Amino acid sequence: MGRLGVTEILVILAVVLLLFGGKKIPELMKGLGSGIKEFKNAAKDDEKKEDKKESETKE
């Protein structure tokens, strides 16, 4: 029940294309990509801070 088939994915893509148009989709994907990149960078920064705190507490 929870899995999407090929038909459902094609229908979703068609609806997105109709709603946003062909010119707007690349802009949306670019924004999504930059958002994911920022999220990954923030996660790496937090991980580095945690590692630094752990090494300071061991000393």
TrEMBL record:
<dbReference type="GO" id="GO:0033281">
    <property type="term" value="C:TAT protein transport complex"/>
</dbReference>
<dbReference type="Pfam" id="PF02416">
    <property type="entry name" value="TatA_B_E"/>
</dbReference>
<comment type="similarity">
    <text>Belongs to the TatA/E family.</text>
</comment>
<keyword id="KW-0813">Transport</keyword>
<dbReference type="InterPro" id="IPR003369">
    <property type="entry name" value="TatA/B/E"/>
</dbReference>
<dbReference type="GO" id="GO:0043953">
    <property type="term" value="P:protein transport by the Tat complex"/>
</dbReference>
<protein>
    <recommendedName>
        <fullName>Sec-independent protein translocase protein TatA</fullName>
    </recommendedName>
</protein>
<keyword id="KW-0472">Membrane</keyword>
<feature type="transmembrane region" description="Helical">
    <location>
        <begin position="6"/>
        <end position="22"/>
    </location>
</feature>
<keyword id="KW-0811">Translocation</keyword>
<comment type="function">
    <text>Part of the twin-arginine translocation (Tat) system that transports large folded proteins containing a characteristic twin-arginine motif in their signal peptide across membranes. TatA could form the protein-conducting channel of the Tat system.</text>
</comment>
<keyword id="KW-1003">Cell membrane</keyword>
<keyword id="KW-0653">Protein transport</keyword>
<dbReference type="GO" id="GO:0008320">
    <property type="term" value="F:protein transmembrane transporter activity"/>
</dbReference>
<keyword id="KW-1133">Transmembrane helix</keyword>
<keyword id="KW-0812">Transmembrane</keyword>
<dbReference type="InterPro" id="IPR006312">
    <property type="entry name" value="TatA/E"/>
</dbReference>
<comment type="subunit">
    <text>Forms a complex with TatC.</text>
</comment>
